[in-house]
Amino acid sequence: MTENTGSKLDSFQKKKNKEEMQQQLISFALMIVFTILAFVVVITGMDKMIAIPILITLAVVQVGFQFYYFMHMKHEGHEMAAVMIYGGVWAALLTLAGLTVITWW
């Protein structure tokens, strides 16, 4: 009976690993596509008022993919790391907002 249970656990773990590998490959491919899109936007000489928001959006999406998939933030046990990263992002946004207000006020 224990052999049967071990076999089920092994097959479950293999299936889970396969699904996770597929998700990582898909996100890696999407990041490559976003990088190519960013190069295309720059190479085509698009107007800066359009190009900059597109590039910032692509960069933010890529950072999200990096955190969520490649730094394994979706797994349990990474709560403290997530709090620290999100706190750092919040501090950076506050700093940028403050500098923007000081510069253009």
From TrEMBL:
InterPro entries: Cyt_c_oxidase_su4_bacillaceae, Cyt_c_oxidase_su4_prok
Transmembrane segments: 25-44, 50-71, 83-104
Keyword terms of this UniProt record: Cell membrane, Membrane, Transmembrane, Transmembrane helix
GO CC term (a single one): plasma membrane
Membrane topology of the entry: Multi-pass membrane protein
Protein location: Cell membrane
Record keyword Transmembrane helix present: yes
Pfam family, one: COX4_pro
Coiled-coil residues: none
NCBIfam families recorded: CoxD_Bacillus
Record's protein name: Cytochrome c oxidase subunit 4B
Organism: Lentibacillus populi
